[in-house]
């Protein structure tokens, strides 16, 4: 049965994260819950060290919660075998980091295609990769190496790479943090104007109040808890 776009397709339920210290457990996240439907876009703000990146890594199955559940399209990636979880991340989740993490020896097109290399249909993605680079304004930069691109252009390549496998969930960790004002605005325009937004769920963690203000849903991480912004 096809899933209705009105159904919750991603959720964090009672998620907590503790780290051991000589003085006992340090709680970074405490009973955090969040649900998203297709088309939702959420910004999470908070001071450095508040747990924003930890929240994102748990949502993206890069780090396990101490307690609580994560669900994407009915699957908890923390409760399946690591090999299956890696395949799940690659297919269902796109990541954009503050540092674009492009391979310096690869062209823009080759960098976008990296997530598809493990797919049995990797050849079919070349056309999509070119189309995505065109959509982010880099049609004339397809064969350029990262060293030949500006910071904003590199981040747009990273965004195209995150979208190439048509993920269900896009996670952005300070996506405009290293960019000048003009480049940051362009990346924000792209994030919030994606053609895929009707099917995609987006979570961005950021220090930027300018970026967060553009999101329809905004939360703050304070004292390890997630609260609606301004509450």
Evaluate the radius of gyration. Answer: 18 Å
CATH topology: Rossmann fold
The residue ranges in which pLDDT falls below 50 over 5 or more consecutive positions are 1-6
- What share of residues are in beta strands? 15-25%
Count of separate structural domains: 1
Instruction: Just give the CATH class.
Output: Alpha Beta
Task: Specify the structural class.
Answer: alpha/beta
Helix content: 25-40%
What is the tally of beta strands?
9
Strand order of the largest sheet: 5-6-7-3-8-9
Please outline the major beta sheet: 6 strands, mixed
Gross geometry: globular
CATH architecture type: 3-Layer(aba) Sandwich
Spell out the CATH superfamily: P-loop containing nucleotide triphosphate hydrolases
Helix count equals 7
Multimeric state of these chains? single chain
| First-last Cα distance | 39 Å
Offer a quick outline of the entry.
The protein has a single domain, classed as P-loop containing nucleotide triphosphate hydrolases (Rossmann fold, 3-Layer(aba) Sandwich), CATH 3.40.50.300. Helices cover about 30% and strands about 25% of the residues. The chain has seven helices and nine strands, in the order βββαβαβαααβαβαββ.
Please tell me about this protein's structure:
With 231 residues, the chain is α/β, with parallel strands linked by helices. The protein has one domain: 3-Layer(aba) Sandwich (Rossmann fold), CATH 3.40.50.300. Helix content is 28%, strand content 24%. It is built from seven helices and nine strands, in the order βββαβαβαααβαβαββ. It has helices spanning 52-59, 82-92, 108-113, 125-135, 151-163, 181-192, 209-212, and strands at residues 10-19, 26-36, 41-45, 67-72, 93-96, 169-173, 201-205, 217-222, 225-228. It has a six-stranded mixed β-sheet with strand order 5-6-7-3-8-9. A three-stranded antiparallel β-sheet has the order 2-1-4, with helices on one face. β6, α6 (181-192) and β7 (201-205) form a beta-alpha-beta unit. It is globular, with a radius of gyration of 18 Å. The termini are far apart. Residues 1-6 have low confidence and may be disordered.
């Amino acid at each position: 049965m096809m899933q209705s776009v009105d159904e919750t397709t991603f959720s964090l339920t009672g998620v907590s994260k503790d780290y051991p210290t000589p003085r006992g457990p340090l709680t970074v996240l405490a009973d955090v819950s969040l649900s998203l439907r297709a088309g939702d876009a959420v910004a999470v703000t908070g001071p450095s060290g508040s747990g924003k990146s930890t929240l994102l890594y748990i949502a993206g199955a890069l780090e396990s919660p101490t307690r609580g559940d994560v669900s994407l399209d009915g699957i908890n990636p923390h409760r399946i075998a690591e090999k299956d979880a890696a395949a799940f991340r690659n297919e269902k989740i796109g990541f954009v980091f503050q540092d674009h993490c492009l391979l310096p020896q690869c062209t823009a097109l080759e960098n976008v295609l990296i997530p598809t290399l493990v797919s049995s249909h990797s050849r079919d993605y070349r056309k999509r990769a070119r189309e995505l680079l065109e959509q982010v304004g880099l049609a004339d930069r397809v064969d350029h190496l990262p060293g030949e691109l500006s910071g904003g252009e590199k981040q747009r390549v990273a965004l195209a790479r995150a979208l190439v496998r048509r993920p269900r969930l896009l996670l952005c960790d300070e996506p405009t943090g290293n960019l000048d004002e003009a480049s940051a605005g362009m990346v924000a325009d792209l994030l919030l104007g994606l053609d895929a937004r009707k099917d995609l769920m987006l979570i961005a963690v950021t220090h930027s109040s300018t970026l967060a203000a553009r999101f329809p849903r905004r939360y703050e991480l304070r004292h390890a808890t997630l609260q609606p912004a301004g509450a």
